[in-house]
């Protein structure tokens, strides 16, 4: 999502605390610290799993094994082959009356050893199985016999009822790719967007890098990969997110859309409860390969605390309140009573009390949250001031389970002007008014006055699929489990014994007012410069694309290349986010979608002399190339995270690499991301359209570029979210949206040859309606 902006904007300020002559000392220290952080996280998870009884396995399995051994012993069978007798000999002799106790203790010790050995064997076998990625390389929509066998074995070794973190101890580590292969792929990726002179110069720099520096930098990465859980993820979090000094608003947040409020807070807290008990099922890629669940740990009770040079993520084990903002005032709302989690009706009652509270905002309070949009170093210094003057209020906000903003204005889709209302809805979620979101919190639940709602999510702690999974659960729980009474209230009864929501007071001096005003002015400038455009594409969806035996994501990516070329008249580096959660603590990798094959296809589409058959052949080549890049990225063989890590090592070692410096000065004028629908079985878009998440978006990665996200809603609709900057004379989100719609129809028409009702590739447009003529046939 928003990571493309951060990835191209990070700057390093590394210092060495070792002797200058020993340039490797800081690097070895950093690797050591990285490994220690990894082991600390693993020990914490291990202890939590012990406490919850899910690791190394369920205690019931041990009891079953112990009972079976005792039964065999009672039947005068010795499953230990004499080992229990040897164990009894080693135990103290307590006399004849304790003979049975010694036998039971020996059986328990043998059962524990056998239990541990079996579990260890299962984990090792499962890790070996999960290291297999051959299934990724198979043609789209097919499954070979070896893959079917592999899948059956994975299911056998996974157990009957795996929990959220059941696979964490068996996931393989992300491999470090070959540096020669990474450089080769990089040169291949930039060839379509560079002139011959620039490409030749880049190739020279790459050759010098491989000859002089690559082997040393690669050695350090290999060393880190052996010691730490993941060779790149902790650096990605630190240098791309936490060391960025830019405003979080637009730059490091994204939004998710939905409709209706009511039970949302209660549903979110139910999700947190299930998360703490590991009752959420682990995510399976293509319903067969488990993904890393580490990012789920920081959804709730998490705040990004600003620092002068580097932020840090503060996560609490638990929090029994949410922080609420309404009309410039802050409140603390407890989420639990002595009987447990408050009912939806009780939470509604508390929110209504806040809405009915007529008290005005205190001086400096109304726009205080604008400080969280300031540059991070500035906010870090001001936060110390705020903490000194109003420590309790700040702790309440930062220690909340999450932040809730009760907006006084309506938002969402309207029948009178659906296009403009969706655009305004997206803009309100992404930026708000600049002072009504606490952007440091892991996420803010935004509830508008007409009941519409959405999320604004800070990006550093996790990626979009994690918050998306939580959001889908929230909407499904509200729709199918909680519901509303006939009068529109949450079901249940109010609780008059609940105390009033606690008003937070910020005793701040007048001299902080200029700082707040300056931060608010900067936030409004940033917000006013963002152009958001959301449009649903309903001519066809993923079902049509699958009938063409193509990957829906690759289909969209090629259509985006065509649309962008028509919009700008040139090709550019394209950033598509792909997940690497096949590996322990994996996050994302970049798919460079603007390939030579994609460019050949686009040029053919714009060439009147090319036939549909020629364009279709080039399109399939482009799609196959994109699928290969996507699979390579997912299997840890991408380009950008490896080059990023090599660059970090070079900076630690104070080595100047013109090649790596050039790589990380590139601008991504087209940043794209697909929002996955992970629980589509929960929804019927036709019967419950108001409960389906319509995706979300993020800001552009470049001042003259676009940010595009898309989501497949059901089988027959795709929703696009486009952003750009109004200050750029080269971009227009609405114009690109029209090119995307035309491009999709033109690409689809390649599969309609011979049909009477079809949209020609050249695009016949009705001037009055502005829509494509004809209809798409289901024949491919």
Structural overview:
This protein is α+β, with helices and mostly antiparallel strands and 780 residues long. The longest helix is centred in the first third of the chain and has 32 residues, at 99-130. The chain is 44% helix and 12% strand. It contains 24 helices and 20 strands. An eight-stranded mixed β-sheet has the order 13-7-6-10-11-12-1-18, with helices on both faces. The chain is globular and about 95 Å long. Helix 11 (264-276) packs across helix 16 (464-482), helix 13 (376-389) crosses helix 14 and helix 19 packs across helix 20.
Strand neighbour order, sheet with most strands? 13-7-6-10-11-12-1-18
Q: Count of helical segments?
A: 24
Strand content: 5-15%
The largest pleated sheet is described as: 8 strands, mixed
Return the average pLDDT rounded to an integer. 86
Report the C-alpha radius of gyration, rounded. 28 Å
- From the N-terminal CA to the C-terminal CA, the straight-line distance is 33 Å
> What's the shape?
globular
Helical proportion? 40-55%
- Helix and strand content put the structural class at alpha+beta
Secondary structure: number of strands: 20
pLDDT under 50 segments (min length 5)?
13-24, 753-780
Topology:
Elements: H1 3-9, H2 24-52, H3 59-74, H4 83-90, H5 99-130, H6 145-158, H7 179-190, H8 196-212, H9 214-227, H10 233-242, E1 253-258, H11 264-276, E2 284-285, E3 289-290, E4 302-305, E5 312-315, E6 321-326, E7 329-334, E8 336-337, E9 340-341, H12 344-356, H13 376-389, H14 391-398, E10 403-406, H15 418-430, E11 443-447, E12 453-458, H16 464-482, E13 502-503, H17 513-528, E14 530-537, H18 542-547, H19 552-568, E15 574-579, E16 588-592, H20 596-605, H21 612-634, H22 640-652, H23 658-663, E17 670-674, E18 696-698, E19 706-712, E20 718-725, H24 733-749
Parallel strand pairs: 6-10, 10-11, 15-17, 17-19
Antiparallel strand pairs: 1-12, 1-18, 2-3, 4-5, 6-7, 7-13, 8-9, 11-12, 14-20, 15-16, 19-20
Helix pairs in contact: 2-9, 3-5, 4-5, 5-6, 7-8, 9-22, 11-16, 13-14, 19-20, 19-21, 19-24, 20-21
């Amino acid at each position: 999502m928003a990571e493309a902006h951060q990835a191209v904007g990070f700057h390093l300020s590394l210092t060495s605390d070792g002797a200058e002559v020993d340039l490797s000392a800081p690097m070895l220290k950093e690797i050591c610290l990285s490994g220690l952080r990894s082991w600390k996280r693993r020990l914490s998870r291990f202890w939590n799993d012990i406490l919850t009884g899910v690791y190394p396995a369920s205690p019931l399995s041990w009891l079953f094994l112990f009972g079976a051994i005792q039964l065999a012993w009672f039947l005068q069978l010795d499953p230990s082959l004499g080992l229990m007798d040897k164990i009894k000999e080693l135990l103290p002799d307590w006399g004849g009356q304790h003979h049975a106790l010694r036998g039971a203790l020996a059986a328990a010790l043998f059962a524990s050893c056998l239990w541990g050995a079996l579990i260890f064997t299962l984990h090792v076998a499962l890790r070996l199985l999960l290291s297999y990625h051959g299934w990724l390389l198979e043609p789209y929509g097919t499954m070979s016999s070896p893959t079917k066998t592999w899948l059956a074995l994975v299911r056998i070794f996974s157990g009957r009822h795996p929990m959220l973190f059941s696979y964490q101890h068996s996931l393989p580590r992300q491999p470090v790719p070959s540096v020669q292969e990474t450089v080769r792929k990089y040169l291949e990726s930039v060839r379509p967007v560079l002139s011959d002179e620039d490409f030749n110069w880049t190739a020279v720099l790459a050759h010098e890098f491989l000859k002089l520096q690559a082997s040393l930098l690669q050695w350090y990465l290999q060393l880190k990969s052996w010691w730490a859980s993941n060779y790149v993820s902790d650096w990605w979090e630190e240098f791309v997110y936490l060391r960025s000094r830019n405003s979080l608003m637009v730059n490091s947040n994204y939004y998710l859309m939905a409709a209706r409020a009511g039970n949302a807070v209660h549903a979110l807290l139910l999700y947190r409860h299930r998360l703490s008990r590991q009752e959420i099922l682990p995510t399976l890629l293509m319903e067969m390969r488990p993904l890393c669940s580490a990012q789920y740990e920081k959804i709730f009770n998490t705040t990004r605390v600003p620092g002068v040079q580097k932020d840090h993520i503060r996560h609490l084990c638990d929090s029994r309140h949410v922080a609420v903002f309404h009309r410039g005032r802050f409140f603390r709302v407890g989420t639990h009573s002595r009987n447990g989690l408050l009912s939806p009706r009780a939470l509604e009652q508390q929110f209504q009390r806040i809405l009915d509270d007529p008290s005005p905002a205190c001086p400096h309070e109304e726009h205080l949250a604008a400080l969280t949009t300031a540059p991070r170093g500035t906010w870090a210094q001001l936060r110390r001031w705020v903490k000194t003057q109003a420590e309790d209020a700040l702790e309440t906000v930062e220690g909340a389970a999450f932040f809730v903003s009760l907006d006084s204005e309506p938002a969402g889709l309207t029948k009178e002007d659906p296009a403009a209302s969706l655009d305004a809805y997206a803009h309100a979620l992404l930026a708000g008014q600049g002072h009504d979101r606490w952007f440091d919190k892991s996420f803010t639940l935004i509830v508008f006055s007409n009941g519409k709602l959405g999320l604004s999510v800070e990006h550093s702690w996790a990626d979009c699929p994690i918050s998306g999974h939580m959001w889908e659960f929230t909407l499904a729980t509200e729709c199918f489990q909680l519901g509303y009474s006939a009068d529109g209230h949450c079901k249940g009864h109010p609780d008059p014994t609940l105390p009033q929501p606690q008003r937070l007071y910020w005793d701040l001096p007048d001299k902080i007012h200029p700082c707040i005003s300056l931060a608010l002015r900067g936030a409004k400038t940033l917000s006013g410069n963002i152009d958001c455009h959301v449009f649903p594409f309903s001519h066809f969806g993923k079902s049509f694309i699958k009938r063409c035996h193509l990957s829906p994501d690759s289909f969209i990516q090629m259509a985006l290349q065509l649309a962008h070329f028509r919009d700008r008249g040139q090709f550019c580096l394209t950033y598509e986010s792909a997940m690497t959660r096949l590996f322990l603590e994996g996050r994302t990798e970049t798919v460079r979608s603007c390939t030579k094959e994609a460019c050949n296809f686009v040029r053919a589409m714009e060439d009147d002399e090319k036939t549909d058959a020629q364009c279709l052949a080039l399109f399939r080549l482009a799609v196959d190339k994109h699928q290969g890049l996507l699979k390579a990225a997912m299997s840890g063989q991408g380009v950008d995270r490896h080059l990023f890590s090599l660059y970090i090592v070079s900076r630690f070692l104070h080595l100047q690499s013109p090649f790596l410096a050039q790589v990380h000065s590139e601008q991504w004028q087209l940043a794209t991301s697909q929002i996955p629908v992970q629980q589509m079985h929960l929804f019927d878009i036709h019967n419950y359209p108001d409960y389906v998440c319509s995706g979300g978006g993020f800001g552009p990665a470049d001042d003259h570029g676009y940010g595009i996200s898309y989501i497949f809603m059901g089988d027959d609709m795709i929703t696009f979210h486009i952003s750009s900057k109004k200050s750029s004379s080269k971009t227009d989100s609405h114009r690109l949206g029209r090119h995307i719609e035309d491009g999709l129809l033109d690409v689809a028409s390649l599969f309609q040859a011979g049909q009477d009702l079809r949209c020609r590739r050249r695009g016949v447009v009705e001037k009055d309606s502005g829509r494509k003529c004809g209809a798409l046939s289901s024949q491919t």
